[in-house]
Specification:
alpha/beta, 12 helices, 370 residues
Length: 370
């Protein structure tokens, strides 16, 4: 059996390749060749650009495969090219096509429903958000080919993926600050934002469940993600504990918490992004292969052993300048402003239970006139 993994060198790629080999597949990866990693002996490499129909054709020629897993490139073009060239097609997309993900105002009143299921509204209007719309178009291309009998297809909507080899490792923003001995870290809106994340090995495990159960997964779209979720504050504190560090968490409103905007993704919103994974659990039997706390420990260990270059490609992708002097100035200014606000006379009664608690019998109201 022949399998093609388009991508293969990112976070989930090596786990997919190893899983396919264990299942008896002869595996080839198709990628641009810009990120080469160690893969098992015998894995073939096809170098080319999976973003355009013509370059996909130039790279793959007349090759055919029993299974194609598309984790990279432009899914709509890959789906089109692979018509009748494979029996089984698994496309990896993302949650960015849900209406309200990129901009909460697109799905009033508060953006995404909590949790968001596979059947919730998608961006089907290019004028609303063109990037999200193209993700929708890509899914449609896969499902149209499936419905026309070109191949048996399944789609996965990945959340924010973490783990080794991530090109946008948000964890590095925390790890590097600890390495650099920072005593403060700024978080937006209390760090209360809860996002669905997916450890790379867990996400590959989810896809391999579909490989094992092609009839159940046929024509299906699945949200994927870790079962256990953490708030941004918890995520930061878990990394802090793993590295044995101590610092002060400085909470600021999102609008002025500039040094941590990159924690919030493309939307820069502190609204929750929680995706319902009930369907994949019920239909494919998904469970986290690696518990998220252990997954995060493994992630931190990997980045400590494979530190990104300061100011290099990864840090540029993160959009984190690590401008510590400016961060300190922001903290100082925020504290001074807070002190001035608290000097404004404004009396708030101490909280007490709103229901009556009479101390004497036969009185219409208690001592607080309740």
């Amino acid at each position: 059996m022949k399998a093609l993994v388009i991508g293969g060198t990112g976070p989930t790629g090596p786990y997919l390749v190893e899983g396919l080999i264990k299942r008896g597949y002869d595996v080839t990866i198709f990628h641009r060749g810009t990120h080469e990693i160690d893969l098992p002996e015998g894995v073939g490499h096809i170098h080319g650009d999976p973003h355009f129909l013509e370059t996909i054709g130039e790279a793959l020629g007349e090759r055919q495969f029993d299974l194609v897993i598309a984790t990279y490139g432009r899914l709509r073009y890959i789906a089109e090219f692979m018509r009748f060239r494979t029996q089984r097609f698994i496309g990896i997309g993302g949650v960015g096509l849900y209406k309200g993900y990129m901009d909460p105002n697109h799905n009033p009143p508060g953006g995404l429903k909590i949790p968001t299921s596979e059947d919730d509204p998608l961006v089907t209007d290019p004028e609303l958000m063109h990037f999200s719309y193209l993700m929708y178009v890509s899914e449609q291309a896969v499902m149209q080919a499936h419905n026309e009998g070109c191949y048996n297809a399944t789609i996965f909507r990945y959340p924010a993926v973490y783990g080794p080899r991530q090109i946008i490792p948000i964890e590095w923003s925390i790890i590097r600050r600890i390495i650099d001995g920072r005593k403060h870290i700024i978080i937006p809106d209390g760090g209360l934002t809860i996002d669905t994340r997916g450890y790379a090995e867990n996400m590959a495990h989810a896809v391999l469940l579909a490989v094992d159960k092609p009839e159940k997964a046929s024509g299906q779209i699945y949200n994927s993600g870790d079962e256990e979720l953490f708030s941004l504050y918890e995520w930061i504190m878990l990394i802090t504990e793993i590295m044995g560090h101590e610092w002060e968490i400085v909470n600021m409103p999102r609008e002025i918490a500039l040094p941590c905007q990159h924690f919030l993704g493309l939307s820069c919103s502190t609204l929750h992004k929680v995706f319902d994974i009930t369907k994949i659990k019920k239909e494919l039997g998904y469970k986290d292969l690696v518990p998220p706390k252990e997954a995060l420990r493994q992630t931190v260990t990997w980045y400590l052993e494979n530190k990104p270059e300061p100011g290099g490609e990864i840090e540029k992708r993160l959009r984190d300048p690590f401008a510590y002097q400016a961060e300190d100035q922001i903290i100082k200014a925020y504290r001074e402003a807070t002190d001035r606000i608290l000097q404004i006379p404004y009396r708030v009664e101490n909280p007490y239970h709103p229901y009556a608690h009479p101390k004497e019998s036969k009185r219409a109201r208690d001592h607080r006139e309740r």
